[in-house]
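Exercise 3.2. Students should predict the tertiary structure of the chain below and write it as C-alpha cells, then compare their answer with the key that follows.

Predict this chain's 3D structure.
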Amino acid sequence: MKIIISPARTMKSDLDSLPYSGLPKYLEQSKEILSWLRTRNYDQLHQLWWNCSERLARINYQRIKGMDLITNLTPAILAFHGLQYQYIGAGVMTDQQLKYLQEHLRILSGFYGILRPFDGITLYRLGMGDKATVNHTKSLYEFWGDRLYQDLFKDNHLVVNLASNEYSKAIRPFLKRNDKMITCVFGEMVDGKIKQKATLAKMARGNMVRFLTEIGAEKVADLKKFSTGGYRFRTDLSTEDTFYFELVKA
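Answer key:
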C-alpha cells in the first residue's frame, strides 16, 4: 500500500527534531526547475505565486536566489506545516510508526516530484498547478509526465489517494485498467450528497494518515475502519475507487 498526500504551502525549517534520511529521488529534475525559476524576475515570480502576499513573495524570491538543495535540510514530513501535517503528528510517533510512514507515505510535489517522509528538503514555494513552463513545457504536469505515476505503481501497489485534485491530477491521467487507486472523500451530508469542505478535509486526511500508521494498514478493508473525529464509512455511497466518509454530528 502507498498513501499519497499533497504538500503544504506553509513550511518551516527544523534541523533538530528528527534527522533526514537521504535526498529526494528526482533531485536532478528539481535542479532543472530551480534553474528555470532563477531566470524569472521578481514580478514574474510573484505572478507565478498568484495567491502569495507581497511579504511572502519577497521572502521566497530571496530563497530562490540562495537556495541550496544539499545542505541544511529538513525531513519533508516536518518541513510541511499545514493542517494536514499537524494532524499527522509525526513528531510524536514511535519509531515503528515512523518506519511505516517512511515505507508507505508519499508526498507529491511540484518542485520535488515525489518525496518520502524523511527525504531532506529545503523550503520552497511552487504548487503543481502553478504555471511554470520549465524546459519549454506547458505546465509542471507536462514536465513531470508519467514519471510519478510509474514510481507509485511500479510494484502494482494499492494507492490510497489523500491528495487534493491539484496533485492527484499528476497521477490520474495515466491510470490503467488494472491499477488500484482509492480516493477518500471526507465531508458532511448535504442534500443527499457528501459535501467536502477544504479545512475539514485537510484535518481528516491527516487523521487518516495517522490512523493507518497506528494500525499498520496493509489492505483495503483497513481504510473502512477509520472513525477518528466522528467520521463513518458510507458503504452505500462508496464505489471501488472512491470511499466516502461522512462526518456525523454529535
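Discussion points: DSSP finds eleven helices and ten strands in the chain. Residues 10 and 55 are 14 Å apart (CA to CA).
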